[in-house]
Each structure stands twice: as structure tokens, then as C-alpha cells.
């Protein structure tokens, strides 16, 4: 069975949409869920997140709402966004990062309109996953998130969601067609043109402000 790693952060609406579209992929692909801190990726690659640029923030929310409706995916933005996803990432790790736990947390955040900062939400999720709240504060859980984020950066992950299949990275909720094409024919990334793109020279660079 072919293996893949799916990197995500609960703060991303695209990660939620991407999760529900993973079902479009063939059942022979075994996916491991890898929680990462999106802010850590942004800091490393010196980027801004979509919600940090006001016009892009508005576009993101509209685009995700439209995409969800198009694909028949239940979707409702939380009461405030962006939000602190740390406790939810730690909850996923404490629960073993299994698909059931990851889906339950995403659903609570992206289908109910709930306030992610409300301590009752994380408490309810922790209870529903049969975990002791103290598990979220264990140093091993905190370290696992940090190490997982560092590992993702080392693999070249720059955003979420990202699917890693044998070292080939596919970024975005809209990458499913690309992923399927690669699974059908891995050679599509080994063509002369794809090889040329890998070493394409930089023609100009933006000056630092």
C-alpha cells in the first residue's frame, strides 16, 4: 500500500476542505495525518498568511464558502478567524492524530460557527475523544508539534494543506486532480519540461521594503 503524509493546521479553511476531498483519492493510498503550526511555516518562509492581508482575507472566506457549496461540503466560518489553533493541534496529537479525531475537531471548528476561543469547545472535544485535559499540557505533546513542524519545513512544506507522496509535495485543497494524475502516472513529474521547471532561473527579485 502506498504511503502519504498530510500536513495540516486546524486554522486553515483550505485544510478543512482538503480533508473532506481526500476521499476522492484511491483507497490504496494510506494517509498519515501530520499536525503542524501554520504560523511556524509562515515564519520560516517569511510569508504572510491569507488572513493577514485584508483583501485576501475577504477573498479567502468567500472562495472557501463557494468551494464548499460546489462540492457539497458542510461549511460555516467560526465566530472569529484567525484563531489560536494550538490547543486543537495538541488535542489531535494527544489523540494519536488518527483520522477520526482529526475529522471531529475540524467539524467542530468549521461547520458549527462556534467560537474557537471558548474553553467549553476544547473541553467538549477533549471529553468526546475520551482524553484527560491534562494530556494537552504534556511536554511530549508540545514537543511533538514543534518537531512535526520542523520536520515539515525540512521536507519543503510551506503551506497547508500539503500532501507528501514519496517526497513529492502537493499543496492546496484544489490539488486533488494533480494528485490523482500523479498516482495514475508518476512519470508526469519526470518529463523534460518538469525537470526544466525545477531549475528555472530567477529573472528578477523584489527589493526589500
From TrEMBL:
<comment type="similarity">
    <text>Belongs to the GST superfamily. NadH family.</text>
</comment>
<dbReference type="GO" id="GO:0004364">
    <property type="term" value="F:glutathione transferase activity"/>
</dbReference>
<dbReference type="GO" id="GO:0018845">
    <property type="term" value="F:2-hydroxychromene-2-carboxylate isomerase activity"/>
</dbReference>
<dbReference type="Pfam" id="PF01323">
    <property type="entry name" value="DSBA"/>
</dbReference>
<protein>
    <recommendedName>
        <fullName>2-hydroxychromene-2-carboxylate isomerase</fullName>
        <ecNumber>5.99.1.4</ecNumber>
    </recommendedName>
</protein>
<keyword id="KW-0413">Isomerase</keyword>
<dbReference type="InterPro" id="IPR036249">
    <property type="entry name" value="Thioredoxin-like_sf"/>
</dbReference>
<dbReference type="InterPro" id="IPR044087">
    <property type="entry name" value="NahD-like"/>
</dbReference>
<dbReference type="InterPro" id="IPR001853">
    <property type="entry name" value="DSBA-like_thioredoxin_dom"/>
</dbReference>
<dbReference type="InterPro" id="IPR014440">
    <property type="entry name" value="HCCAis_GSTk"/>
</dbReference>
<dbReference type="GO" id="GO:0006749">
    <property type="term" value="P:glutathione metabolic process"/>
</dbReference>
<feature type="domain" description="DSBA-like thioredoxin">
    <location>
        <begin position="5"/>
        <end position="183"/>
    </location>
</feature>
<dbReference type="InterPro" id="IPR051924">
    <property type="entry name" value="GST_Kappa/NadH"/>
</dbReference>
<dbReference type="GO" id="GO:0004602">
    <property type="term" value="F:glutathione peroxidase activity"/>
</dbReference>
<feature type="active site" description="Nucleophile">
    <location>
        <position position="12"/>
    </location>
</feature>
<dbReference type="GO" id="GO:1901170">
    <property type="term" value="P:naphthalene catabolic process"/>
</dbReference>
Amino acid at each position: 500500500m502506498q504511503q502519504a503524509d498530510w500536513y495540516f493546521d486546524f486554522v486553515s479553511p483550505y485544510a478543512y476542505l482538503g480533508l473532506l476531498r481526500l476521499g476522492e483519492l484511491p483507497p490504496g493510498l494510506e494517509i498519515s495525518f501530520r499536525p503542524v503550526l501554520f504560523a511556524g511555516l509562515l515564519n520560516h518562509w517569511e510569508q504572510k498568511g491569507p488572513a493577514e492581508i485584508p483583501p485576501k482575507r475577504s477573498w479567502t472566506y468567500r472562495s472557501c464558502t463557494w468551494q464548499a457549496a460546489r462540492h457539497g461540503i458542510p461549511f460555516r466560518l467560526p465566530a472569529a478567524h484567525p484563531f489560536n489553533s494550538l490547543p486543537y493541534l495538541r488535542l489531535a496529537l494527544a489523540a494519536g492524530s488518527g483520522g477520526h479525531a482529526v475529522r471531529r475537531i475540524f467539524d467542530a471548528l468549521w461547520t458549527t460557527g462556534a467560537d474557537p476561543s471558548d474553553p467549553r469547545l476544547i473541553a467538549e472535544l477533549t471529553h468526546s475523544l475520551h482524553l484527560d485535559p491534562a494530556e494537552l499540557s504534556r511536554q511530549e505533546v508540545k514537543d511533538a508539534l514543534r518537531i512535526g513542524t520542523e520536520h515539515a519545513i525540512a521536507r519543503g512544506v510551506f503551506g497547508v494543506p500539503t500532501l507528501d507522496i514519496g517526497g513529492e509535495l502537493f499543496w492546496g485543497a484544489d490539488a486533488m486532480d494533480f494528485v490523482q494524475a500523479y498516482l495514475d502516472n508518476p512519470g508526469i513529474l519526470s518529463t523534460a519540461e518538469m525537470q526544466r521547471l525545477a531549475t528555472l532561473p530567477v529573472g528578477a527579485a523584489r527589493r526589500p521594503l
